[in-house]
Amino acid sequence: MTDRIQQFLRSRTEDGPCLVLDLEVVRDNYQAFSKALPDTRVFYAVKANPDPQVLELLARLGSCFDTASVVEIQQVLAAGASADRISFGNTIKKERDIARAYALGVRLFAVDCEAEVEKIARAAPGSRVFCRILCDGEGAEWPLSRKFGCAPSLAPRVLEHAHRLGLQAFGLSFHVGSQQRNPLMWDSALRSSSEIFKDLAERGITLQMVNLGGGFPTKYLRDVPAVKAYGEAIFHSLRKHFGNKIPETIIEPGRGMVGNAGVIEAEVVLISKKSEDDSVKWVYLDIGKFNGLAETMDEMIRYPIRTAFDGDACEPCVLAGPTCDSVDVLYEKDPYLLPISLEIGSKVLIEGTGAYTTMYSSVGFNGFPPLKSYVI
Asked: d(Cα 260, Cα 240) in Å, to the nearest integer?
């Protein structure tokens, strides 16, 4: 919570929940990444928060961008970045979207199978491709599934196929899981990457780049290592596995770039109990899973919640959203400790919400409007 956000909220009179994001924090985060990994290019993960002001700031600072769709590519171009600073990082793309991205000037595409390679060869001839490999995401608070990536043993075949179809087999990528709190988790994936580099070199194909993915965390309830610790651990692993032939590297921070820059202000709509002898209260907010807090699914991301009554005695509460859907419960398996003095109508501040909130907010489920966003 910055002083600038506090001042903005004090002067705000509108009704309903809102996100307030401080661009000065985003600037500081970008500079921290640049300093921690000075020889690595930053490709901001647009999906984390595509607000035009965020994209414009990062474009001015020199950032590149990881995009998941043609719309995101267009948003980045509108923010002032050139197409050579854009990666189409989604491994699942319609061929017509690949063609559209190519027409817009994009020449860097992610793949994880031969069928995707063939689409790119037809729709974006001569482009550079990198193959995403599966890796262990143990320790991540938001683990990634097997939806993206192939087994490392399959990657050489995929990239050799790209080479034979006239594409440039450019490199590899992996993702160690979002909100990864262990800086050492990049080591195993880099070991696999170095082995794939050697395999392809023996086939006469020279890879040039390793995309280190995202995973860089923001602070929620628990402390996280500083970006510097990640930079040191990653560089150590690069030297260990690649020796003096360290490839070009890129990173795709999303949550780590904007997560701690934002705070959501919400309101308590109702406080109740389900029975007379129930020891746990239910606290309903005017924001829930469908209004921007989708990452509370399975209670994986536990946001810090501040109130005007902090310091008072607390009691366990189930937190839920306002919609008429039974899955719109935020924290029930592990109830949240909130002040006993909390009242209906009280404001609560949900910190660390600059990433993956506004873009998860529905267009109008149950008639609730999308989450308002203010960038200061």
From this structure: 32
pTM over 0.90: yes
Does 260-375 carry CATH code 2.40.37.10?
A: yes
- What distance lies between CA 223 and its chain's CA centroid? 18
Torsion angle, alpha carbons of 156, 157, 163, 164, to 10: 150
Domain residue ranges of the chain, discontinuous segments joined by +: 89-253, 260-375
Q: CA 172, CA 235: separation in Å to the nearest integer?
A: 17
Work out the pLDDT band at 145, boundaries 50, 70, 90.
Answer: low
**Token reading at 216:** 């860089």
What does the alpha-carbon distance between residue 69 and residue 303 come to, in Å, rounded to a whole number?
28
Just list the catalytic residues: 324
Q: Which residues contact 332 (CB under 8 A, 6 or more apart)?
A: 299, 318, 319, 320
User: Which token pair is 317?
Assistant: 């509460």
How far is it, in rounded angstroms, from Cα 67 to Cα 184?
Answer: 26
* Those residues with Cβ within 8 angstroms of residue 82's Cβ, 6 or more apart along the chain or in another chain: 105
Tell me how far apart the alpha carbons of residues 93 and 109 are, in angstroms, rounded to a whole number.
10
